[in-house]
Amino acid sequence: MAISTTTLLLSSFSSYPFSSFHSSLSSTLKLSSPLTLPNVTLIRSSYSQNASSSDPFNFREPEIPTMSSFQRSMNESSKISSSRWRRVLLKVSGEALAGDQSQNIDPKIAMAIAREVASVTRLGIEVALVVGGGNIFRGSSRAGCSGLDRSSADYIGMLATVMNAIFLQATMESIGIPTRVQTAFRMSEVAEPYIRRKAIRHLEKGRVVIFAAGIGNPFFTTDTAAALRCAEINAEVVLKATNVDGVYDDDPKRNPHARLLDTLTHQDVISKDLSVMDMTAITLCQENNIPVVVFNLNKPGNIEKAIKGERVGTLIGATWNSTMSRT
């Protein structure tokens, strides 16, 4: 019985009586002829230099984490636990991206959003975005122009949201935030198609996911897309960034005495017909117990505060932590 060229990697067998090992192996196998091992090479492991003669299997033990790395992980965990939500969906309207309306997309607004999202993703909070397209094209208001039907107008509006999403993605990645854009209909050259499990996996890996093209169907707003995607990816809250401080009991532009509401129920929004989100979106949030925070995008730090769950704007469908003061 012959074994072809063999290399035996032995950690510290150089001192082991190989002849006795050879004879015992042959007798154990009850071979009629001695076991021949041609071209056998014994390689002494680098570990054998530190091995004791009494322990031929002296393998290296795994390194124990240092106290500094342990403290670092504990600090990160405490920061995450101090935040109210672990996974959030941020809804940014197209009008908010336009800023002072002098251009379709204000780079300063986009960079402000990117920086505040970056500050919370580094704490381990998972952030997804739904972006509108009203700064470029609003389908509901353009329907009927030059014979344009509502469905075609809405599809054009969906393409506008993709433009905003790509702009936001480029801005975020310029400051080191890994970002993926997923569209409701296929545009494989510029973005991924929306796949629920893939989106969740991106979030788990610390990437920001931007959902574009609404839900891919006309007659639905991007508010509805935000509520739907929030439910699908198991996000804990919809954060609606607007150009006002929150929800008022009257139009603050017409009534200077209008009062900012601290909390509301979903039913309050529906029964009072408050212009927070469209009825489809707010009903979807109500049915899935999804709270909504409405806050002012234009105030620095508000995005970070909202994502962390700090008291800002108006909270719909839940109550604020009693220890939090309004900022």
TrEMBL record:
GO BP: any one term: UDP biosynthetic process
Originating species: Lupinus luteus (European yellow lupine)
The protein's name: UMP kinase
GO cellular component: cytoplasm
UniProt keyword terms in alphabetical order: ATP-binding, Kinase, Nucleotide-binding, Pyrimidine biosynthesis, Transferase
Pfam families: AA_kinase (PF00696)
Aspartate/glutamate/uridylate kinase domain residues: 87-296
Pathway it works in: Pyrimidine metabolism; CTP biosynthesis via de novo pathway; UDP from UMP (UMPK route): step 1/1
Family: Belongs to the UMP kinase family.
Gene3D superfamilies to which the protein is assigned, alphabetical: Acetylglutamate kinase-like
InterPro entries, alphabetized: AceGlu_kinase-like_sf, Asp/Glu/Uridylate_kinase, Uridylate_kinase_bac
GO terms assigned for molecular function: ATP binding; UMP kinase activity
EC number, UniProt record: 2.7.4.22
